Each structure stands twice: as structure tokens, then as C-alpha cells.
């Protein structure tokens, strides 16, 4: 049972999450005794593609051309479905990004496949094919059996260890038979309104809560995020107060994120907040209250006032950046 994995690129570059996906696909292929076939869409250099072989992609397929220049989920789904069929792949793995969320169900419809989104473990078994995922905002674990011949999975971010499994680098250009008529949308123009990282894509997130006291105090938090190359986030009361935009609100009723590093600054750690961030790999909390529940979820905690701690964190982050 071979495994096809779609590897997104960001301006021609892969991220750590890309290698996590290849490692995951490779591990399933090892369980099933098949090959790992990675598909990359759009302009990506050969040296970048070669990195996929380092994490276990037996074959890298490159889909390129005018039709895939702009993201059209229907076109990308057609290309990936064709690649899966041409390579006899019975498992198709994608990330859990906004892009993949638009593509995965379309692949499932094309290939008449069962879809499990947000899985966070290797399949419990491959015959029958049973996957595991968090349900009810992480309060329970669900097991889902996929009965169709082809299975489509999206992998929750940060749920699988990146592991090097070097294999020979084999890259092929794949002709998915795409035509202009396949394009269901035409992007007429795209203008960047902000250079800020998208919350769901960020590997580091700096988040502020009511302990930040007022919207006027956000400048050092923003600066820390810029220095670290991080996205900014906030707790719900902060966005309810109008201190920050609602898109930044994380938690049960906001975005669910799983960065490598999450800074919780002046956030108490209510269960509804943790529901959105508890899958973060490392949590660093700063709070004046040593009894704040956030310290139970945190890997590192600083008991202190943000007025003093935040400028020091910023200073250290700048020194660290300068030393690189
Ligand atoms: C149905 C429902 C859904 C919800 N969904 C969400 C959600 O999606 N996301 C979410 O975040 N919340 C959600 N909430 C709200 C949640 O219950 C909490 O009220 C909220 O998370 C608290 O936000 P906070 O930690 O910023 O504020 P607070 O609970 O007020 O905590 C502020 C913290 O800052 C600390 N502090 C104060 N001053 C300083 C200082 N100078 N330096 C350092 N620390 C300081 C305090 O000790 C305190 O721990 C939901 C609630 C309900 C009922």
C-alpha cells in the first residue's frame, strides 16, 4: 500500500511541518510495505526538493505550469488524485493547513475515499485501517475506521516527530493532464495587506491575555513576535474588548493552533483557552499569579510582572537573533 503525500511550499521553500508530513507518510508506508511518493506543486528548486528524500520520500513528483500558478483547490485536487492513481497509492496524506483543508475533501470525492481530518498518530492498524485523532477540543480521543479502498488523511500539526530516513533522490515531472478549463476560479490580482505570519502557519506564537492590561501595551509583544519571526495571538476577552482583532483569538471558540513554541503572556490558562493551544510543543507562560492554571500546562514558567519581564525577554531575543 503506497502512500502519497502532498507537500506545500511557501514561496518555493518547505517548512519543518513539510518534513513532519514526509516522516509520517514514510512511517505509514513502512507499516504497509509500500512506497512514499511526495508531490510538490509549483516552482521549487531541485535542492529544496532533495530535502524530501532525506525524510524518506522514495519518489518526488513535481507538478508545474501556468494552471497551478495560483491556488485553486479543484485543480490541485485533480493533480493529486491523478498522481495517487498513477502511482497506485491507497493512502493520501496532507497537512491540516487552510490550503489542505480545501483540497483534501475534493480528493476524497474524486477517489471515492474516506477522509479522516486532523489525525495525530500513526494508524492503529492498517487492515482494517483505523486512525486516531483528538475530538471534543482535545478532551477525548476518537478512533475512526476507514473502509474505502483509498484513504485520505490530514495530519494535525506537530503531532508526529520529524525523522530523517534518507533514501535516493528521485524526482520526476508529473503531467496531471491539467487544462485551463479545470480552473474553477481565476485570481485577477492579489495584494499583500500585511507581512504578518498567518497564525495557523506560524511555528512560534506570542500571545497576550488580559494581563497585558490595555491595547496600548501591545508594542513590546508585537516587537518580540517580529524578532522571533512569530505570529501574534490573544485570549478571547482581549479580542472581545477590542484590544486585538478577532482573527487572533485562540481557544475553544477561536483558532486551534499547535506551534512549536507558544508564549502565553498574562493569560490565566482557562480550559477554553487551553483547548486551542494545548497541542503546542513547548509553552512558556509569564504570569504574576503562581497559582494560575497556565503553569500546569506550561513547560517553562516565569512568575513575574510583564511590565518588567517582557522588556527583558525582548532584549534577550534581540541578543539571540544578533548572535545567529
Ligand atoms: C463557552 C466559552 C468559550 C470560551 N472560549 C474561549 C476561547 O476560545 N479562548 C479564550 O481565551 N477564552 C475563552 N473563553 C473565556 C475563558 O473562560 C477565560 O475567561 C479567558 O480565557 C481568560 O482570558 P485571560 O487569561 O486573558 O484573562 P484572565 O482570566 O483575566 O487572566 C489574566 C491573567 O493575567 C495575569 N496578570 C495580570 N496582570 C499581570 C501582569 N502585569 N503581568 C503578568 N501577568 C499578569 C493574571 O494573574 C491572570 O492570570 C470562553 C469562555 C466560555 C464560557
Provide structural commentary.
The chain is 30% helix and 24% strand. It is an alpha/beta fold. The chain has two domains: 2-182, Rossmann fold (3-Layer(aba) Sandwich), CATH 3.40.50.620; 199-323, TPP-binding domain (Rossmann fold), CATH 3.40.50. Strands 5-9-4-1-2-3-10 form a seven-stranded parallel β-sheet, with helices on both faces. Helix 2 (46-54) links the parallel strand 2 (36-41) and strand 3 (59-63). Helix 3 (73-86) packs across helix 4 and helix 5 (219-228) runs parallel beside helix 9. It is globular, with a radius of gyration of 21 Å. It binds flavin-adenine dinucleotide. Flavin-adenine dinucleotide binds at residues 209-211, 235-238, 249, 251-254, 266-268, 270, 272-273, 276, 286-289, 292, 305-307.
Short synopsis of the structure:
This protein has 324 residues and is an alpha/beta fold. The chain has helices at 16-32, 46-54, 73-86, 98-111, 219-228, 236-240, 271-277, 294-297, 306-323, and strands spanning 2-7, 36-41, 59-63, 89-94, 114-119, 125-126, 129-135, 140-146, 151-155, 171-173, 204-208, 231-234, 261-265, 282-287, 300-303.
Amino acid at each position: 500500500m503506497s502512500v502519497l503525500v502532498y507537500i506545500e511550499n511557501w514561496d518555493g521553500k518547505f517548512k519543518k511541518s513539510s518534513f513532519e508530513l514526509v516522516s509520517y507518510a514514510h512511517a505509514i508506508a513502512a507499516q504497509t510495505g509500500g512506497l512514499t511518493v511526495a508531490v510538490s506543486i509549483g516552482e521549487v528548486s531541485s535542492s529544496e526538493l532533495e530535502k524530501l528524500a532525506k525524510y524518506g520520500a522514495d519518489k518526488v513528483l513535481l507538478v508545474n505550469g501556468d494552471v497551478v500558478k495560483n491556488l485553486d483547490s479543484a485543480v490541485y485536487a485533480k493533480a493529486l488524485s491523478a498522481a495517487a492513481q498513477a502511482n497506485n497509492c491507497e493512502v493520501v496524506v496532507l497537512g491540516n493547513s487552510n490550503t489542505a483543508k480545501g483540497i483534501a475533501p475534493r480528493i476524497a470525492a474524486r477517489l471515492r475515499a474516506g477522509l479522516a481530518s486532523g489525525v495525530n498518530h500513526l494508524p492503529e492498524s492498517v487492515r482494517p485501517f483505523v486512525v486516531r485523532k483528538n475530538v471534543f477540543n482535545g478532551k477525548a480521543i476518537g478512533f475512526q475506521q476507514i473502509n474505502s479502498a483509498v484513504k485520505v488523511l490530514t495530519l494535525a500539526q506537530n503531532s508526529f516527530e520529524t525523522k530523517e530516513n534518507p533514501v535516493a533522490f528521485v524526482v520526476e515531472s508529473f503531467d496531471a493532464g491539467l487544462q485551463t478549463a479545470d480552473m474553477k476560479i481565476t485570481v485577477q490580482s492579489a495584494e499583500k495587506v500585511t507581512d504578518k505570519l498567518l497564525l495557523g502557519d506560524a511555528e512560534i506564537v506570542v500571545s497576550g491575555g488580559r494581563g497585558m492590561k490595555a491595547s496600548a501595551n501591545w508594542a513590546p509583544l508585537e516587537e518580540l513576535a517580529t524578532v522571533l519571526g512569530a505570529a501574534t495571538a490573544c485570549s478571547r476577552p482581549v479580542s472581545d474588548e477590542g484590544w486585538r482583532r478577532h482573527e487572533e483569538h485562540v481557544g475553544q471558540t477561536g483558532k486551534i493552533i499547535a506551534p512549536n513554541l507558544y508564549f502565553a503572556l498574562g493569560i490565566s490558562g482557562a480550559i477554553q483557552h487551553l483547548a486551542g493551544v494545548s497541542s503546542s510543543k513547548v509553552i512558556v507562560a509569564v504570569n504574576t499569579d503562581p497559582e494560575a492554571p497556565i503553569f500546569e500546562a506550561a513547560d517553562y514558567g516565569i512568575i513575574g510582572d510583564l511590565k518588567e519581564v517582557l522588556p527583558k525577554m525582548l532584549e534577550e531575543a534581540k541578543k539571540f537573533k544578533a548572535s545567529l
